[in-house]
UniProtKB/TrEMBL annotation:
The keyword Hydrolase applies. Homotetramer. This is fructose-bisphosphatase. Residues 186-242 form the Fructose-1-6-bisphosphatase class 1 C-terminal domain. It comes from Pocillopora damicornis (Cauliflower coral). Its cofactor is Mg(2+).
C-alpha cells in the first residue's frame, strides 16, 4: 500500500474544510458543489458505459447553439438539471442544451443560479478526444461569481504552444494576423463557457479578454450569447492585445 495515498485531499473534503473557515456559513454552497460533483461523476460513468448502453450517436435534435445533440448530451443535461434541482440550493438554471431559462420549483428553490454546459465536446467522444463539463455559479441577490480558489496563481508567461487552423488565415484582421486569433466567428458561449474559464484564469493571475475588454466585464444581452476569448498567462495576453490594438 506504499503507493496509495490514504489521506488524499478529495474535492468534498476540501470544500468542507473551506466551509469551516467561514463563521456562520449556511452550507448551501457546499451542498451545491457536492450536487455538481455528483452530476459530473454520473456523467463520467455514463460516458464510460456509452458503447454498451448504445448511447453513441445523434439524438435527432439541435441545441440552441446549432450543434447536433448527441444522445449523451441529452442524458448529461437531464442528470445536471435533476441533481441541481434536488440540491434545494438553486433558483435558475441555464444550460447549453435548453433554449430558455429553467426555473426551479418554488418549494425547491435556493439562492444560486447555475450556468452550465453538461458535456462539452460530446461530438469528440467516439475518437477519444477530450470532453468535460463546464459550470459557473452566481448568487441570485447580487449576481456575482463565487470565489472558490483564491490562492491559485499562474506564471507571468506560459509555455508557448502553436496551434491554429492556417486555412482560415485569410479571414483574420490585419493586426490580429501577427498573433494568431479567430475572432470573426466566436463559438464559445459567454455565460457557461467563457465567463467560468475567465474567472478561474483571472483568480490564478492570468488574463481573459475578448480583444477589447475583460471577459468578466461583458454584460450579456442573451442567454446563449457568444463571444471571442483570448485567455492565458497575463504577459502572453498583453502581447496579443498590443498587436490587436495596433
Amino acid at each position: 500500500m506504499g503507493d496509495i495515498d490514504t489521506n488524499c485531499m478529495t474535492l468534498t473534503r476540501f470544500v468542507l474544510n473551506e466551509q469551516r473557515k467561514i463563521p456562520g456559513a449556511s452550507g448551501d454552497l457546499t451542498q451545491l458543489l457536492n450536487a455538481i460533483c455528483c452530476a459530473i461523476k454520473a456523467v463520467s460513468s455514463a460516458v464510460r458505459k456509452a458503447g454498451i448502453a448504445q448511447l453513441y450517436g445523434i439524438a435527432g435534435d439541435t441545441n440552441v447553439s446549432g450543434d447536433q445533440q448527441q444522445k449523451l448530451d441529452v442524458m448529461a443535461n437531464e442528470l445536471f438539471v435533476n441533481m441541481l434541482k434536488s440540491s434545494y440550493t438553486t433558483c435558475l438554471l441555464v444550460s447549453e442544451e435548453d433554449e430558455t431559462v429553467i426555473e426551479v420549483e418554488t418549494e425547491r428553490q435556493g439562492k444560486y443560479m447555475v450556468f452550465f454546459d453538461p458535456l462539452d465536446g460530446s461530438s469528440n467522444i467516439e475518437c477519444l478526444a477530450a470532453i468535460g463539463s463546464i459550470f459557473g455559479i452566481s448568487r441570485k441577490s447580487i449576481g456575482e461569481f463565487v470565489l472558490t480558489h483564491p490562492d491559485i496563481k499562474m506564471k507571468p508567461r506560459g509555455k508557448p504552444i502553436y496551434s491554429i487552423n492556417e486555412g482560415n488565415a485569410c479571414l483574420f484582421d490585419e493586426g490580429v494576423t501577427k498573433y494568431l486569433e479567430s475572432i470573426k466567428f466566436p463559438k464559445l458561449r459567454l455565460l457557461y463557457e467563457c465567463a467560468p474559464m475567465a474567472y478561474i484564469i483571472e483568480q490564478a493571475g492570468g488574463m481573459a479578454s475578448d480583444g477589447k475588454q475583460p471577459v468578466l466585464d461583458i454584460k450579456p444581452k442573451e442567454l446563449h450569447e457568444r463571444c471571442p476569448i483570448f485567455i492565458g498567462s497575463a504577459e502572453d495576453v498583453k502581447d496579443f492585445l498590443k498587436f490587436n490594438s495596433a
